[in-house]
Amino acid sequence: MSETVQQTSAARAHNSRISGLEPAAAEAAPPASRRASGGGSVLHRDRRFFILLLLPGVVVSVATIFLPVLYAIGLSFYQANSFIDTPVFVGLDNYVRVLSDPGYWHAFFNGLIYAVATVVLQVVVGIAIALILHQPFRGRTIVRGLALTPYILPTVVAVFIWKWLLDPNYGLINAAAAFFGYPNIDWLGSPLLAWSSIIFVSVWHWTPFVTITFLAALQTVPEELYEAAKLDGAGPLQQLFFVTLPVLRPVLLVIILLRTIFMFNKFDIIWLMTSGGPLNATEHLPLLAYNKTFMEFDIGGGTAIATTSFIFLTAGMYVYLKLFPLEDRE
Amino acid sequence: MSLRKFLPVRSGVIASLVAGLVIYTLFPVYWMVVSSVREKAKLFSTEIFPDAFSFESYRTILTLTDFPTYYLNSILVTIATTLMTIGLATPMAYALVRGKVPGAMLVVRAMLFAYMFPAMLLAIPIQVFLVHVGFDDSLISLIFAYSSFTLPLGVWMMWSFLKRFPFEIEEAAWIDGCSRWKAIYLIILPVTMPGVISVAIFSFLLAWSDFVFSLILISRDELKTLPYGLSSIVTAYDADWGVIMAGSTMISLPLLALFIFLGRYFVAGLSAGAVK
Fold it and tell me: Is Endoplasmic reticulum among the key words of this record (chain B) (predicted)?
């Protein structure tokens, strides 16, 4: 996002440069007549023209994003026991009920641990892979492409591949374990193993995003910095920690922020791997919201969970951006 | 310096790291394909390179389940979503970059913020609303629901592409007597094509892969899209892993093909803000 900020100011400068070129009078001329004259007047800026271009997209995004979110917040103040029920206003009751349920906090911390664990692992593994792919070797371009494959696959496919590999009775991984004399392991059977499996599959599936972003950023580190570090006697690890990572800190901060947001919101991978089991052990807030709404038909409760989850996320983003302001970095 | 002695060791280390990386990324995908073409009798075989192949799993999923219907639904919904996203996002991004529209930056920021909304915060109210107005369980509502995440992404990506564009060229075209539309068509469109292709690829990828929205918005079997359809085959038919892997391979094929032929746009899009 730091790059964005930079580009934004560049764009602003660019715009003001153009408006400097433009005679102020053009702004005041009636747009319709100019359009009718077939672009006779050069450098016109027709407000109505741009609003026309903006309007369809704005209408659709308001209808499919902003109104639904407002509607969800509204629903969280009502009680309804089915989709066709007439909702009854209950004020903050849903919030009180939902937040005083220990299951909510269990799910909250599950989600938090899942997000933190997967983000840390994605970043570490992603950087390691990016560093390998940054080395010169034959076939590098092809390997860089291949390394993206897990990210391209639909989540459903990634989950089914790994559920097959991890199958307790016939999976390849247990077959390999048996070969070395280990007993069959039920990879999704206990809370700890289920979480480990979910985290592993998530990291396998989404790490290429970090790899690609970090790899692109690596090309921008000036070679002179490494030369200077080498002259000072820095080894490869010291170069990584004292040159590469500090220079790429802004990129890393953005990657961590974005990955955390998306891992906190991820629903499908856990739903497909365990559906929250065994015995709610892998339930997190999106799953809880889904179950409340579509299994218990408690729409007020479900929307209250979704809303609070989003409030926590926004608060977390706010704290993160206060701690690590992206704005004043290059 | 012992550079000459050091280099072979170093390249040996790199070679084994790269080999390890390729196995880690690709072996599971390879295993999917191999399992899908294994003979039924040998489904649980651990042979890495099977010597006989069978397409029975493909025949099973294509003839005994609704998989072909899911496939058609997915093609329809994905293409419609992609076209709608390009059709709405491109003019929007152009106006946001070019027009002195009041609050343009606010719209851009709102779009970025919207892209972070949890799927549940969107899918639940959309479904409740659709049930209320009696328009639930339809592919059209699914397409519009998909735009709730493809549109913010599309606007954001197009905006990042367009703001780097030297618009002096467009102004030069006006001076040469081009109308506004003609300048967009002749000058802007060709240059922004890479951006449009990237947005198309990501809209395609997101719509094709989506599981959450179809799980929530679709209930009739004949309207399911591939990811949800495949997962319901797994629960409903007690399908064996060969059949599931055949389905998984067929779902992945269009995406892998897209990536092989348009990979560079994919990477360009990733760096321009595709983040999910």
Answer: no
This complex has an ipTM of 0.91
Choose among B21, B151, B230: nearest Cβ to A129: B21
CATH number for position B237:
1.10.3720.10
Q: Which of B22, B101, B209 sits opposite A155 (nearest CB)?
A: B209
Range of the domain at B103: 66-271
Give Cα A19 to chain centroid, integer Å. Answer: 37
pLDDT along chain A (330 residues), means of 10: 40 40 37 41 62 91 94 94 84 95 96 97 96 90 91 96 94 91 91 96 96 89 89 88 90 90 94 92 96 93 96 93 69
Q: B209 and A212: CB-CB below 8 Å?
A: no
B61 assigned to some structural domain:
no
Number of compact structural domains in chain B = 2
Q: Which of A53, A147, A161 sits opposite B248 (nearest CB)?
A: A161
Closest residue in A to B226 (Cα) is A156
CATH topology of domain A96-323: MetI-like fold (1.10.3720)
Contacts of B129 (CB under 8 A, 6+ apart): A68, A71
Q: Does B125 touch chain A (CB under 8 A)?
A: yes
Nearest CA in chain B to A174: B46
The answer to whether residues B178 and B89 belong to one domain is yes
